[in-house]
Amino acid sequence: MASKSIAVFGGNGFLGKRICQQGIESGYKVISFTRSGKPPTPTSHHDIHWLKQVQWEKADILKPDTYKKQLNGIDTVVHSMGLLFENSNYKSSLDSELDLFEDLKSLQKSILGSTGPNPMARTTQNSYASIQRDSAVLLADILLKKHSKKAASSPPVSFVYISADQELPAVPSGYLTTKREAETELRSRSPGIRSIIMRPGFMYDELDQNPRKKRNIVKGVLQAGFEIKNCVFGDSVPLVNGIIRPIVSTQMVAREVYKKIEDESFFGIVPLDEIARGR
Fold it and tell me: Name one Pfam family in it (predicted).
């Protein structure tokens, strides 16, 4: 039996690294493509083991010549790249410890950087359209072209796209709009591409227990709100269900990704509620 293979674009990111880890633990050959080509910093001692088994490659997703040949023989591709704000400084801020004054300044810069008066300051490396939509469509078209050269009986290439559950407070509408546009484009490329659209909400890492990290503080608040909602309303009020959403770990999302990959009959959208049921 041929070994299974998967390429993860954004494999050293917050979610991407757990998709790589789950792949290694599930017996896949895993290749990660990122702009740095470097593995992420280990969160735990266990991370050191699987990080060594991933093939870390440097590539620019918007420049196919930097990775196209390495996709030969790949069964599945994952697009795990995205921006909450077009000013990417928020990423380091979210995973740092709480500093209220600096955090407020950082949030202001992120919002102004996404909606401010100088759109020409944006580059192809930090815009919603290029990172969340155009890069995914470009990658899908490369895979579709490769698939067209195979026998008619060849199975489609599985394309996992990390989308989002819904709009987020204070986050510009372009964040969700470009993800939904990418979903539409990917689904239109059937039958050569089997699209698997993941729609997680707020994510945390099960191995990161630092109580002062802003992400973990937000996690605690959202989890408490969700539990109160369940105690008071249960699932009986659709309006409340749509506002107060479950949170999921990156590990939960990664497990659901492989569950859908290995179900060859599945294609389409995996909503947040389905991911959350996999606890």
Answer: Epimerase
Q: Report the phi/psi class of residue 234: left, alpha or beta, with left for phi > 0 and alpha for psi in -120 to 50.
A: left
Task: Take residue 46 and report the two structure tokens written for it.
Answer: 């266990």
Q: Would you say 5 and 29 are in contact if contact means Cβ atoms under 8 Å apart?
A: yes
- The per-residue pLDDT for range 208-254, each reduced to its tens digit, is 888 888 888 999 999 899 899 889 988 889 888 889 999 999 999 99
SS3 content of the chain, % helix, strand, coil (to 5): 45, 15, 40
- CB proximity list for 191: less than 8 A, separation 6 or greater: 156
Nearest Cα residue to 177 out of 167, 169, 190, 189: 167
d(CA 223, CA 50): 30
Tally of CB atoms within 10 A around 101? 7
User: pLDDT tens digits for 24-58?
Assistant: 999 999 999 999 999 999 988 889 999 999 999 99
Residue 171 contacts residue 185 (beta carbons within 8 Å):
no
Domains within the chain, CATH numbers bracketed: 4-86+124-210+248-276 (3.40.50.720)
List helix spans (H) across the chain.
Answer: 16-25, 45-51, 90-94, 100-115, 128, 135-148, 174-187, 214-232, 238-243, 250-262, 272-276
Instruction: Measure the CA–CA gap between 242 and 258, rounded to whole angstroms.
Output: 27
Go through 61-94 and write b for each residue having 16 or more CB atoms within 10 A of its CB, e for each that does not: beeeeebeeebeebbbbbbbbbbbbbbeebeebb
Q: For residue 202, give both structure tokens.
A: 């707020």
| 213: three-class secondary structure by DSSP | strand
